[in-house]
Amino acid sequence: MPLHGWEFLIIVVVVLIVFGVGKLPQTLGSLGKGVRSFRKASAGEDVDTESMESKSKKEEPAKEKDTAGEEKS
């Protein structure tokens, strides 16, 4: 059942009344972030493991310390 012109217009007016013009961009931005995170989560574990592997490769190795507790360069 597709939305026609008047139905869509009524939905837009109700959304504007409920959220207000000022908060609408913030609300839609939050909705977009939620949809993106849902898509990533529903894509499976592959996305998470790939991002974790790329982050671990970018980390710098830890600096060595000598026996006196001072950092070596």
Automatic annotation (TrEMBL):
Its main location: membrane. The chain crosses the membrane at residues 6-24. The keyword Transport applies. One of its GO terms (cellular component) is plasma membrane. It is a single-pass membrane protein. Residues 39-73 are annotated as: Disordered. Residues 52-73 have a biased composition (Basic and acidic residues). Keywords: Cell membrane, Membrane, Protein transport, Translocation, Transmembrane, Transmembrane helix, Transport. It is found in: Cell membrane. GO terms for biological process: protein transport by the Tat complex. It holds the Pfam family TatA_B_E. This is Sec-independent protein translocase protein TatA. It comes from marine sediment metagenome.
